[in-house]
Please model this.
Amino acid sequence: MPTVSHLPTVHTRRETRNGIKIGCCRVCTCLHLEFLTTKCGLLKIFELLLGSCSETLLIRFGLPAATEMGEAFYTFHSTVSACLTTTFILLVSYIFSARTYGLIRQSIFEVLFNAVACCLYISASLITLFCSSSYVAFATSVFLYPRFTASSADTAYPAMICVYYLGFIISIVYGLDAFTSYKSYKGYA
Model:
């Protein structure tokens, strides 16, 4: 019978370079800026940027047309606000603490949040698209489209179409983040 010998596992601590290098020293060493270059960090930044663009377009151009759009506007606005706030809190937490990143990323919270955010964005975009293809399309063609063609200052219609497409893109990003966080949760990554 062959003899199997096990070598003890040596846990080497990886040299991390936290903070910002200025000259020969580092400042703000409490910051975990390497996180921003990881796949998860890039996904969070992308979610934050797209969510901010959607929120800006909704407030800037959609708010005056909210009465014509009805529930579709408020559903999408609620989704963007909730997901944008939670993503911002997670991003700040991950930047300030590498330990928080290790704990939360491998928890069920990250998986559920990303999956729910993906579903919310998909449903809000679908509701908005279905509403815009019925009531809002009628209201747009009767009320907004003539104003849009007469004056280029009325930009609610193209901005809202852009927001709906951004919603689909954000749902794909959150779905990808849900998949990668599920892999982390199961210990595959």
Summary: Residues 13 and 167 are 41 Å apart (CA to CA). The first helix runs from residue 39 to 62.
